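*** Residues and shapes ***
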Amino acid sequence: MKKYYFSTLLLVVFLLIPLTVFADEKDTKNGSHPYDMVNSKGEVIKYEDYMKELDTSSLKKDENYNGSGKILPERKLPNYKKYKPYKSLSPSVPSGAIQKSITPYVVIGEDGRRVVDDTSVSPFKQISYIELEWADSWGWCTGTLIGKDTVLTNGHCVVDPDTQQGITGAYVIPGLNNSHYSYGAYQVVDYFVPSQWINTGDSSQDFAVLKLAPYIGENAGDVAGYRPIRQVTNIANQTVKVYGYPSDRINDAGTYSQWGMSGTVGREDTSLAFYQLDTFNGQSGSAMLNSSNEIVGVHRGGYTFSDGQSFNGGPKMIKPVYDFIKAAQ
């Protein structure tokens, strides 16, 4: 994460405490921007500030890195399940500008998902299980490593715009398979979400970048590798794959493994892509991967259109999303 000047909204001692209401951000006359960046401490990094930094620096080319593959011992993780109830992380309703209804998940017709047998190969090695702790519950999402210590996921996985509260803790486990893992488990120490996600729950803003601490001296991306992000405009009729950790399949099997499938982007608008790939709660935050395994969007949930058709979908990697993610890295 590059250095920027912060507009501090509240002072806290520890990272990853619940966020509070950001009333000032709702007034665009005060100079706020939908892609202003808010971190886990409630500090705001203004859009114009990080864009100046991006404009004056040479952005590194997004490259695929498969990681060292170093085998690390499993670590003792907090047992959230023992003390707190499970929280189904359902996306909020969209903004008034998006006339679609949204559900947490959709299995469309016959379930076409398959289990991933080998998560030691890319891109499955970079797809990660994220276990989340809230003040009164726990849950999980999916994310994808995009740098040595950064993960891309959904905004609703870390901040609930209805309550304005954030997670109190989280761990990221790359390549979790049959409830075992080889590449370490990494504590989330910070996160970055768009201010408009906190203020409105806008579907097109439902993404987040997580920052990870090293585990026994190793960074997650150095060990498991990371996926490149690809800026896009139109991806209709392109093939994408969406893999993650769906709760229905995990509960049926009794073990945590990756599931997913490939298909075609059937509809899109300027900021969202829609496809009839089957997903379920727990796959929130999964990457939309193109045929080159580049990230072109972030899966969010199920959408039902006014014509009655059901799709899954989420934010595309349009320029402001791409810029936000690059700045957060």
Summary: Residues 32 and 223 are 38 Å apart (CA to CA). The first strand starts at residue 6 and ends at 8. DSSP finds six helices and 20 strands in the chain. Confidence is low (pLDDT under 50) at residues 2-29, 93-104.
